[in-house]
Amino acid sequence: MGEAPAFVVDNLLQNQDGFGSKSKGCKTTTTIGDKTFVIGGENDESTLSVEVQIFDNPTGNWVTPIVLGTKPNTCKGLSAVSLNDDRILIVKKGSTPDDCIWFLEVDTQFVRGQKKIQGTDVVAWSKGARGYAEKPVVISGPSGVGKGTLISMLMKEFPSMFGFSVSHTTRAPRCMEKDGVHYHFTERSIMEKEIKDGKFLEYASVHGNLYGTSIEAVEVVTDAGKRCILDIDVQGARSVKASSLEAIFIFICPPSMEELETRLRSRGTETEEQILKRLRNAKTEMEQGNSSGIFDHILYNDNLNECYESLKKLLGLDGAAAATQRSAPQGIDLPTDHSVSKMDNKIIINCGTPELKKASKNLIVLDVSSLKGGAPGRTRGLDVYAIDSFSDGLNGINQPS
Ligand SMILES: Nc1nc2c(ncn2[C@@H]2O[C@H](COP(=O)(O)OP(=O)(O)O)[C@@H](O)[C@H]2O)c(=O)[nH]1
Ligand SMILES: Nc1ncnc2c1ncn2[C@@H]1O[C@H](COP(=O)(O)OP(=O)(O)O)[C@@H](O)[C@H]1O
After folding, report:
1. pTM of the model
2. Rounded to the nearest whole angstrom, what is the distance from the C-alpha of residue 148 to the centroid of ligand 2?
3. What are the residues whose beta carbons fall under 8 Å from the beta carbon of 292, sequence distance 6 or more?
4. Which ligand has the nearest atom to the CA of 308?
5. Other beta carbons within 10 Å of 361
6. pLDDT tens per residue across span 129-141
């Protein structure tokens, strides 16, 4: 963690910290490169709202960045430590077990991309999710190839394991489609404004309509402890590949263009004009799917059941693992008083308050080498365990108890 320059600390002490001269409350400062990130905010009685200000050291200016992702809700205090100079780990004091570890991305690939689009400083929040670090699954392929059918089969067989990322779209609902379940159906002007406000992980114009994955859509699934499935086009897959959301990318091919046309027509959901447009676009999508280098796996959906079995196999669901339905990950029970430090790729949270010294375990270790993904949404794979600093010694942190 970088040290805050002396004048910033002085300013903070005098409450001239970019939050306004009347700002009170608890803040942390973390310096990365030329910038000092001041995280915290005003105290309202005993709670603290979590805001971000940046002090640009070369120019001496305070910057209010665009903040992407859902910010943490109020807490009783904060500790911060920088990780790999691209994100800051925040430990919230006095929060619930599933809400105490957060990441503020300040220079990740996603944030750098957003800075270019927005033309100003951008930071992105991501909540730490403990437990299984299975990657989200991105499924792409031409219209009518069977993506929706395969995803429905997966969700039906493994309801507690997978959650669907509900996209936004400007296209009209089909007769069986429900708002908020299949898509969030929206107006173009509203969606364009939300895209401008940085609410989307990715978006694309497909077959003449706007489609996009909101950051919230991915957050909702991860918070439920489920593995996120995204049904998005090749352009969207390319954007996700460039984001911090580490995913598995699967492209579904039809056995032939004739069969694709048959499926599209027999589905009976599109007008003739729409069918022709989708078939024209299918050729380009197939070329990109096969040659873009985005996709980790290409599956042929000829016989539906065989294709489904192949999909399950590459997701590791064909054997005993398939029988194990996963439960939601547990959180971390932290006391209000603690201090945070970094040692190699481990974060040590010292809970050594007088009362807790009597408890058998007073150090909590977060192994950050297992982290997956990141903003926007959730950072999965927090590996957390407790040790006793007195009997295990600090050297014991390599040995989870
Ligand atoms: N980029 C992007 N594409 C999406 C999203 N949601 C759906 N799509 C893609 O938009 C295309 C059209 O979807 P839809 O209108 O539901 O038609 P269908 O593919 O024929 O069922 C498909 O290629 C979807 O994968 C999204 O959030 N982002
Ligand atoms: N392997 C398959 N063989 C025959 N029909 C299929 C197969 N897979 C899907 N279908 C049918 O093709 C149509 C299009 O499938 P759908 O899942 O809606 O495609 P997508 O979501 O890729 O647009 C649906 O009527 C579906 O029942």
Report:
1. 0.76
2. 7
3. 234, 238
4. 2
5. 15
6. 766 557 899 999 9
